[in-house]
Design brief:
The chain is of the alpha/beta class. 45% of the residues lie in helices and 15% in strands. The protein has three domains: 220 residues, Rossmann fold (3-Layer(aba) Sandwich); 76 residues, Tyrosyl-Transfer RNA Synthetase (Orthogonal Bundle), CATH 1.10.240.10; 67 residues, Structural Genomics Hypothetical 15.5 Kd Protein In mrcA-pckA Intergenic Region, Chain A (Roll), CATH 3.10.290.
Length: 403
């Protein structure tokens, strides 16, 4: 279908949703050194699993000789992307944005090579140019090229207006600044391609159009599908909260378990999207049936965790799963909760993060969903006087250790 190895790989692994000019992009990708970027705002100390689809786009680009740019939104985070949002984002301080940016960078160092060679990834911050914009010159030089009609037609704006939900002038300008980012990266780094999730299509097209009008023609766009699970849930959202990429926000064990618990119907798709396993091996794994599909899920969990957290973390998590489920022990990769013994079981559940509140802990106890070292606990007045494994259901566990 495509001549370039880059697009052929993206198509084979399910990464492509839309292209602005498939023929031109195929030709550009077939030449060495294609430069492309994805932007990430610094709204939290970590990105989450939902961001992995675009991170893997950058990884595939580098694997095929291109140069990835990670654009950190030190400037745009001060505004907030209205895409997919019903309300305005919380405004963050300069200090919080800077701290989030530093934390997020550590994740990209796992997926991309920033070594400094010709094809090495670079990370830039759009605050470097957005913070220096002067309003009147910017409006004169760029604002006159941006169509308000087109901006109003974008889903991120149109849906908010149709629902009569507030959309501030600040948020309305987000797409203007994202379009300008593309132009700046084209001028500074020779960037020709912007990639993103399918919800960014309108913003990407706006940047391409602005580039054409201000002397940066031939810009290109590619989006990847927004990933949902087989049951229709948004990728990376669980009952316990977001699946964060940084270990400070989510222990290795929980990250591994997220992939291990993948729905049978999603295993092959996720292996293609989120691992580097060869396609023929993935075909073999997804053809497994019955109980054997668990081997494919473990392969997915190991490969995805090794990419994000390192091979040692994946090995520890697998060993812990074996100890926890097959041998009834508490493996070392289980998250720890430090408590003072004796401790009430309700307090232990909340301290371990297995229950969000004391009320939820009591409900789970009444449902018979709580175990300590394999024994069911139902009485909320129970006191635990020693270290051990506290479990909620079959899949969530923590080790209680002395504070």
């Amino acid at each position: 279908m495509y001549r370039s190895a880059f697009l052929e790989t993206l198509a084979a692994r399910g990464h492509i949703h839309q292209l602005t000019d498939a023929e031109a992009l195929d030709a550009a990708a077939g030449a060495p050194g294609l430069v492309a970027y994805v932007g990430y705002d610094c709204t939290a100390p970590s990105l989450h699993v939902g961001n992995l689809a675009t991170i893997m786009l950058l990884r595939r680009l580098q694997q095929h000789g291109g140069r990835p740019i990670v654009l950190m939104g030190g400037g745009t985070t001060k505004i907030g992307d209205p895409s997919g949002k019903d309300v305005q984002r919380q405004m963050l301080s300069e200090e919080a944005i800077s701290a989030n940016k530093a934390s997020i960078r550590t994740v990209f160092e796992r997926f991309l090579d920033f070594g400094g060679g010709a094809g090495s990834a670079i990370m830039v911050d759009n605050a470097d140019w957005l913070d220096r914009i002067e309003l009147i010159p910017f409006l004169r030089d760029y604002g006159r090229h941006l169509s308000v009609n087109r901006m109003l037609a974008q889903d991120s704006v149109r849906l908010r207006l149709e629902r009569e939900q507030p959309l501030s002038f600040l948020e309305f300008n987000y797409m203007v600044l994202q379009a300008y980012d593309f132009v700046e990266l084209a001028r500074r780094h020779g960037c020709r391609l912007q990639m993103g999730g399918s919800d960014q299509w309108g913003n990407i097209v706006q940047g391409i159009d602005l580039g054409r009008r201000v002397g940066c023609p031939d810009l290109l766009g590619l989006t990847t599908p927004l990933i949902t699970t087989a049951d229709g849930a948004k990728m990376g959202k669980t009952a316990a909260g977001a699946v964060w990429l940084n270990p400070d926000q989510l222990p290795d064990w929980d990250y591994w378990q997220f992939w291990r618990n993948t729905d049978d119907r999603d295993v092959g798709r996720f292996l293609r999207l989120f691992t580097d396993l060869p396609l023929d091996e993935i075909s073999r794994l997804e053809s497994l049936e019955g109980a054997e599909i668990n081997a494919a899920k473990i392969a997915l969990a190991n490969a995805a965790t090794a990419l994000c957290r390192g091979a040692a973390a994946a090995a520890r998590a697998e060993a812990t799963a074996r100890a926890t489920f097959a041998e009834g022990a508490a493996g070392e990769a289980l998250p720890e909760a430090r408590v003072g013994f004796p401790v009430g079981v309700v307090d232990a559940l909340t301290a371990a993060g297995l229950a969000a509140s004391r009320g939820e802990a009591r409900r789970k106890l009444a449902e018979g969903a709580v175990r300590f070292d394999g024994e069911v606990v139902t009485d909320p007045e129970t006191r635990i006087d020693r270290p051990g494994r506290l479990s909620l259901g079959r899949k969530r566990h923590a080790r209680l250790v002395a504070a």
